Amino acid sequence: MAVVRDLRVLLRFQGFRRLLAVRLLSQGADGVYQVGLATYVVFSPERQTTAAAVASAMAVLLLPYSLVGPFAGVLLDRWRRRQVLLYGSLLRALLASATALLILGRAPDWLFYVSALCVTAVNRFVLSGLSAALPRVVDADRLVVANSLSPTAGTLAATAGGGVAFVVRLVVADSDAAVVLVGAALYLGAGLASLRMAAKLLGPERALVRPRLTEALGGTARDLAAGVRHIAAPPRREAAWALAAMSLMRFCYGALLVMLLMLCRYALTSTTDDGLALLGLALGISGAGFFAAAVLTPWAAGRLGPGRWIVVCAAAAAVLEPALGLPFATVPLLAAAFVLGVTTQGAKIATDTLVQSSVEDGFRGRIFSVYDVLFNVAFVSAAAVAALMLPPDGRSVPLVVTIAVIYGSVAAAMTRFARR
To answer: What is the mean pLDDT of the chain?
Structure first.
C-alpha cells in the first residue's frame, strides 16, 4: 500500500521517528485523559449527572483549542520547540495527577474544571509545536506526506487511548482517578521521549528578526480578520457557505452526542458500567462511520462535486436522524451513530476540499484557524443548547426534531446556492 510505503520512507529519518513517538504518546494520553474526564462527569455512580455538567465538560475540553490556538504560533516562534514539548508534557503530567487527586478528594466541581482547563490549554501549544517542528525533521520533498501521515497517526493514537481508558475503567480498576493517572503517565512518557532530540533540533532559529510580542499578537488578530474578509469575497463564496454548513452540522452532532450521553447514563441501561460500555460501543460505531466517509467521500464528491455532496450528507441526516432517533431505543441509536459519523465526516472532508481549492495559499492557514474556532465553538454551543432542552433521562422529542430541521435547512440552503 502507498501509505505503508510512505511511512516506511519517513521512518528512515531519525528526527521524524522521535518526533512521531512524542506525538503518539502525547495524543494517546489526550485520549485517555478526555475519556477519564467524560466518565467522571457522566458515569460516576456517586454523581447525579446533568446535561449542564456535560456541557461544562465539553467547554473545558474544546474552548482552549479555539481561543488559544490562533495565537499559539506567535509564542512558538519565540520558544525552543523541543522545550515546549518537554515542559508542556511534564506540566500536563503534573496537572493530570492533580486532577486525579481532585477526583479522589471529591473536590468542588469548579476546581476540577480549572485543572482540566489548564491541561487542555497546554495541549494546544504542544500540538502546534509538533506541527511547527515537522519541517525540521524531514526534507522538503516529503513534507506533504509527513503532514498527512503524522496527524493521522496522532488521531489513531488518541482513539486508541480512549479505548485504553474504557478498558481500564471497566476491567482493571473501577476508578476514574486511575484512568486519569494512566493519562498522566503517558504525558510523562511524552516528555521523556522529547529528551531524545537535541534542544536546538526543532527550532526556531534565534537569528530571525521578530516583532515585539504585543505587536505579533495584534497582528495575528488582524490577520484572522483579513482571512474572514478573504473567504467572504464573491470568488470564494462557495467555500464560505460550506464553512457555515459544516458549523451547523457540527452543532447538530454535538447536541446529539450530549443526548446520547444522557440516554446511555439513564434511559437505556440500568448500571453505570453498562452505560459506559454502551457509550464506548456507540462511539466506536460512529468512528467506523468516519472511516466509511473517508473511503466514500472521494468517489462521491468527485461525481457530484463537494458542494452537492454536502447537500446529500445533510439531507440524509435530516431524514434518518429522526427516523432512528425518535424511538429512543438502543439498536436504532447505534445505527444513527454510524449514519451521523458518515454524514458529518463526509461533509467535513468536502468542506476541507472546497477551502483548500478556492482559498489563496497566503490565506489558507488563517482560514483554517477560523475554521477551527467555528468547529469547536459550534460543538460547545450545541452542548449548551442541549443542556437547556434535555430532560434528566435524555429523551427529548423537541431536540431531535429541531436537529432534523437544521439538517434540512442546511441541505436546502446549499441546494439553493448551488443552483444560483
So the answer is: 83
Range of 47-51, 95-99, 198-202 with top mean pLDDT: 95-99
Question: CB 11: neighbour CB atoms within 10 A?
Answer: 12
Three-class HEC string of 63-100: HHHHHHHHHHHHHHCCCCHHHHHHHHHHHHHHHHHHHH
The CATH number of domain 234-420 is 1.20.1250.20: yes
* Domain 1-210 belongs in CATH node 3.40.50.880: no
Q: State how far the Cα of 402 lies from the Cα of 248, in Å rounded to an integer.
A: 12
- Distance between CA 54 and CA 30 in Å, rounded? 18
Position 372 pLDDT exceeds 80? no
Q: Could you tell me if 404 and 321 are in contact, meaning their C-beta atoms sit under 8 angstroms apart?
A: yes
Q: Please state the pTM of the whole predicted model.
A: 0.77
* Distances 401 to 244, 259, 338, 344, 389 between C-alpha atoms, Å: 20, 13, 19, 18, 12
Chain centre distance of CA 98:
24
- Residue 123 CB burial class (10 angstroms; 0-12, 13-18, ≥19): buried
Rounded Cα distance, 13 and 21, in Å: 12
* Ramachandran area for residue 49 (φ above 0: left; ψ -120 to 50: alpha; else beta): beta
Checking if the pLDDT of 160 tops 90, the result is: no
- What is the rounded average pLDDT of the residues 215-222? 70
Helix (H, G, I), strand (E, B) or coil at 209: coil
Model confidence pLDDT, tens digit, residues 69-83: 676 666 666 778 899
Position with higher pLDDT, 18 vs 204: 18
Strands (E), 136-177: none
Q: Kindly list the distances between the CA atom of residue 370 and the CA atoms of 61, 86, 344, 345, 410, in Å, as whole numbers in the listed order.
A: 18, 28, 19, 18, 20
Q: What are phi and psi of 105, to 5 degrees?
A: -85, 5
Which residue in 369, 343, 144 sits closest to 250, CA to CA? 343
Write out the three cell numbers for 296: 466514500
Residue appearing with cell numbers 522538503: 140
Strand, helix or coil at 270?
coil
What residue spans define the domains of the chain?
1-210, 234-420
Alpha-carbon torsion angle 283, 355, 350, 293, nearest 10: -40
